[in-house]
Design brief:
The protein is α/β, with parallel strands linked by helices. About 30% of the residues lie in helices and about 15% in strands.
Length: about 230
């Protein structure tokens, strides 16, 4: 799993609501910490639900250093970004994973750290997670529009796209394959090949795919799906 991202130290994950970026960051952090010193930074100041901070205790128990907005997981509406987040650029760590708010508003929080990323750009991968079954990311034009807005606000070019097309338990191999097709077209337009396809392990193995696969275990399953 880790080899899919090369030697990058800083992995920045963005994606619209419902893209599954938080599931992917959780899976990657829990896998990475088995092999290397790993930090997960929850920078999602937009979406109060399905955020990596909900699993902070589990992550810390596994050995992952967890950082999040000061007021995350409380009743305070507007979270603040603590100064401690800046420390990930100063304290040595083998891998730092950022879970960033999915739209251009969320990417604005990322832009705050642009000077630090600019110095470490060769060690950084900007990753866009796409679920083609979700509103606003169903077509190539919608995805490219989202990508451009995120790049403008976050001030980082997208380096890699993850096709995470799914409809929870109703996902089919045909959905995954069609999502891969759309995402590959977007990657070509954005000049950010390669593409990775993430999802349920069994469905990925049954799908006819041309991209590397990233099996994902579901951690953020909402109560209504239990």
């Amino acid at each position: 799993m880790n080899s899919l991202f090369g030697e990058a130290v800083y992995l920045v994950f963005t994606g619209n609501y419902g893209s599954g970026k938080t599931e992917i960051t959780l899976n990657l952090a829990l896998e990475s910490t088995k092999q290397m010193k790993t930090t997960l930074v929850d920078l999602d100041i937009v979406n109060p639900y399905f955020r990596s901070g909900e699993k902070a205790e589990e992550l810390r128990d596994a050995g992952v250093r967890m950082l999040m907005p000061t007021y995350a997981m409380t009743t305070v509406d507007i979270p603040a970004l603590p100064a401690e987040i800046q420390s990930v650029f100063e304290i040595p760590s083998d891998r730092v994973i950022f879970d960033v708010g999915g739209d251009d508003t969320g990417a604005a929080a990322l832009g705050r750290y642009y000077p630090s990323f600019r110095v470490r750009r060769k060690q950084t991968k900007m990753i866009l997670v796409i679920n083609c079954m979700r509103p606003l990311t169903r077509t190539k034009d919608e995805i490219l529009d989202l990508a451009q807005r995120i790049q403008n606000r976050g001030r980082l070019k997208i380096d890699l796209i993850i096709n995470n097309t799914n409809l929870a338990d109703e996902t089919t191999t045909e959905m995954i394959e069609e999502g891969e097709k759309i995402v590959l077209e977007c990657a070509e337009a954005l000049n950010c090949i390669p593409v990775i396809t993430a999802g349920n392990k069994d469905l990925l193995r049954k799908s006819r795919l041309s991209t590397p696969i990233f099996p994902v275990k579901r951690y953020m399953k909402p109560e209504w799906m239990e």
